[in-house]
Amino acid sequence: MTDTPHRRGADRTEAIMRTTLELGQKIGYARLSMEAVAAHAGASKQTIYRRWSSKGALLLDSLLSLNEPGLDYPDTGDLVADLRAQIHAAVDLLAGPAFGPLFKALVGEAQHDPQVAAALNERLIAPQADKTVARLKAARDQGQLSPGFDLALAMAILSGPLYFQLLITQEQLTHEYVDRILDALFAGMRPRPPMPAAQAGPPPTPGPHRRARG
Amino acid sequence: MTDTPHRRGADRTEAIMRTTLELGQKIGYARLSMEAVAAHAGASKQTIYRRWSSKGALLLDSLLSLNEPGLDYPDTGDLVADLRAQIHAAVDLLAGPAFGPLFKALVGEAQHDPQVAAALNERLIAPQADKTVARLKAARDQGQLSPGFDLALAMAILSGPLYFQLLITQEQLTHEYVDRILDALFAGMRPRPPMPAAQAGPPPTPGPHRRARG
Amino acid sequence: MTDTPHRRGADRTEAIMRTTLELGQKIGYARLSMEAVAAHAGASKQTIYRRWSSKGALLLDSLLSLNEPGLDYPDTGDLVADLRAQIHAAVDLLAGPAFGPLFKALVGEAQHDPQVAAALNERLIAPQADKTVARLKAARDQGQLSPGFDLALAMAILSGPLYFQLLITQEQLTHEYVDRILDALFAGMRPRPPMPAAQAGPPPTPGPHRRARG
Amino acid sequence: MTDTPHRRGADRTEAIMRTTLELGQKIGYARLSMEAVAAHAGASKQTIYRRWSSKGALLLDSLLSLNEPGLDYPDTGDLVADLRAQIHAAVDLLAGPAFGPLFKALVGEAQHDPQVAAALNERLIAPQADKTVARLKAARDQGQLSPGFDLALAMAILSGPLYFQLLITQEQLTHEYVDRILDALFAGMRPRPPMPAAQAGPPPTPGPHRRARG
DNA sequence: AACTAATCGAGACGGTACGTCCAGTCTTGGA
DNA sequence: TCCAAGACTGGACGTACCGTCTCGATTAGTT
Predict the structure, then answer these.
(1) pLDDT digits (tens, 9 = 90+) for D18-42
(2) CA distance B189 to A144
(3) Together in a domain, C103 and C118
């Protein structure tokens, strides 16, 4: 029988997360209450609290349920192209209509809930960062980057401006913006064995969307 | 008469903001309620709502009242040293015990309150960013940076990693971390007319605290 | 000059009472606040509190300002006809759209404000009752009522059922109801020198609207 | 298990009504707030509002909980004696220290809350009035009253003066006053086949407490 | 087939805070 | 000197959720 009024276990878990996403998208994740999720999911509050200790925990699980596979890095041999492809994909997700508001709400929760902050890092941020670091490491191993290159620092430098744009200035995150950052950074990051010296800022190397502003 | 029990206007404004800071520091800004601020400030809720439309607005004004003068940039002629000095100061503030938790709470609010987000940008982020941009512009005007150098982008690249550390990974923000970022970036940003060619990543030029990690 | 923005004394008093009546009629006397009266009258709250110590006091004065002359008794020699005429007039006022709601609100206030209760009695109830008593006394003096007739008691018996209808059952007060009460009462109250014996209840004497119900 | 900290339903209902009575008696029903009842009853406001939509509704239920059985009429065969007994009992209740202030407050509420007015009539006034009417009807059926006697009207005439005294003049309601009214009225109401003719007003027949005043 | 244990929805409960309204007092500045 | 305008504290309003807690009904997995 599949039409029993309330089924058990995983059934309920999934229904609650789906309701969280739908309702959050409709009314905003800030206005979303455990009460409302319970009512709309046809679940009791007890059932929700059995599984998630806070709204943040529920949001995080709901968000992760959207993106089980994660974003994978290509390795075409061209580091900059690979990073660009991956960051474009990440930006499409983070700044997209489904994921974006939820992610921002989650970061908001993380600012006053250490448990959410920790879980957010462990389950969403770190896995993605690890992939970037792995790709950079491959490049370093192949001599495309100097041996002393600080991979984690590079990752932070690549990611930071995006989060700044997303969380602080709250302007739209575009591929063009990503490209400008990559162009600016790789003038400095790239080793320059043959070339005389890469120009700083927007380097002469033509990026697809590069345009100076300052 | 100056000793009336409640003098008007500015008096109450200041008392409420002071209470917000004290109480927020004691119990945490997330647990801080308008109700509690009113009670501890000896003010009525009406008086608070007359001035601030939301907790976020109150937090922002309270935070700004801590830092009326703002941080000013030196201009010693040495761009990197000047940026380092200013960013150290900014980090001391942002990651310090008084300002830090409040600022994080405010960014949290900004994630679900567009008014707070806008005010945060206009009144806290932009003024500071403008100073960085001005210092960079002076350097560019003096030929220390290439003419096409994108000042706003550079500002985002300099700031981004710090906010990433503060808001996402929530690790401690140290001077040493700032130095590593500056070292890594300025290998690429700096124009290199005289120098042979700065190596990317952690450049060979010894920065004060540089240490590889990846 | 008559168009100064705020004139003094009696001017203000009258404006405030007029506003009380208008606003009370529009939104109901229960929902009427001192605040609203002040705002609509273009007066400050201070000015209102200077003249009236409570909403009840203001209501009472406003009500009395409607009815300065009061209701006067005719004395045509026919007691029952005179009482009927006067009570009809009183009922028209008390149950009318202008006076009625205000009077009911005032009685409501009187139930928890002894000052209002006292003022209501002294300034509204007693003066009217006195006229009824005076008319009854004239009748007694002329031998139309027995010498031991208790005038005040008769007044209470005549009035009581009307207030019961107005305040408790809240049904419509009609002339017909007044007549039925008078008919029933005067079968007992009237002395019967010549007649053999007046029938009790609805007496046989034809009243204009008499009709049995029980 | 019967000792759970808060058992359900009726428990809370009763505790809240008891608190309403106690607190109302102590501080006055006008000054009684839902807030205070909740606090003193150890209940949340929600719990109160779940059961009663307004202070008036709560007052009415609390009052009725004082008087579950109601007042019953004797039928000794002597109509006047029975009415007197019953009205004495009613007056003892209405003008007594427990019931009186509460009843007056309730009538006050009824003046601006039609729901309270309706409930007051249905649940308190009408049941009692019905008993009076029933007793009068028995008397009429036995020929003690004329066949055309209007029972409902008589009830209003009997009750009205008491409510007038209680609500308007706010003087003390005594058995003596009740007796004077009954004496005055029954001179007219009573059929007088055998008797010579009852005098109106205070009839010559000596009632137990009769005394002229006018 | 009946029993047991787990799980569910429903929703009552004490609480805390919300944002609003009004009471009654006080201050300021203009007429 | 009187006024309007309106700021101020304080208290209550009625509502929304929180997280905890019964309560029966339903279901699975034993016996």
Answers:
(1) 999 999 999 999 999 999 999 999 9
(2) 19
(3) yes
Phi, psi of D170 (to 5 degrees): 55, 30
For A144, name the nearest residue in chain B, comparing CA atoms only: B200
Q: How far is the CA of C119 from the C1' of E27 (A)?
A: 33
B and A adjacent (3 or more CB pairs under 8 angstroms) = yes
Mark whether D95 and D29 lie in a shared domain: no
How far apart (Å, rounded) are the C-alpha atoms in residues D144 and B161? 102
Mean pLDDT of D169-173: 96
* DSSP state string for A49-89: HHH-SSHHHHHHHHHHHH-TT-------S-HHHHHHHHHHH
- Same-domain pairing of B62 and B43: no
Same domain, D25 and D105: no
Domain of A111: which CATH number?
1.10.357.10
Residues B106 and B162 in one domain: yes
| D201 part of contact set with chain C, CB < 8 Å | yes
- b or e along D36-45 (b: 16 or more beta carbons within 10 Å of the residue's beta carbon)? ebbebbebee
Residue C170 CA and nucleotide E5 C1' are separated, in Å, by 60
For chain A, 214 residues long, give each residue's pLDDT as a single digit of tens: 334 455 666 788 999 999 999 999 999 999 999 999 999 999 999 999 999 999 999 999 999 998 766 677 789 999 999 999 999 999 999 999 999 999 999 999 999 999 999 999 999 999 999 999 999 999 999 999 988 899 999 999 999 999 999 999 999 999 999 999 999 888 654 444 433 333 333 333 333 343 334 3
CB within 7 A of strand E (chain B, 42-61)? 44-46, 49, 54-55
pLDDT, tens digit (0-9, with 9 covering 90-100), for D93-140? 999 999 999 999 999 999 999 999 999 999 999 999 999 999 999 999
Quote the minimal CA–CA distance from D131 to chain C in Å: 14
Task: Give the residue from chain C lying closest to D104, CA to CA.
Answer: C111
Tokens standing for residue B36: 């509690």
Q: How many domains does chain B have?
A: 2
Residues C96 and C140 in one domain: yes
Q: Are residues C100 and C178 in the same domain?
A: yes
User: Is some CB atom of chain A closer than 8 A to the CB atom of B100?
Assistant: no
For strand F, list residues 3-22 of chain B whose Cβ lies within 7 Å of it.
Answer: 6, 8-9, 11-12
Range of the structural domain that residue D16 is part of: 10-51
Closest CA to A162 of A98, A87, A81, A64: A87
Chain A positions touching B159 (Cβ under 8 A) are 160-161, 164
Q: Is residue A180 part of a domain?
A: yes
Site of tokens 């009769």: D210
C1' of E6 to CA of A6 (Å)? 14
What are chain C's partners, defined as 3 or more CB pairs within 8 angstroms? Answer: D
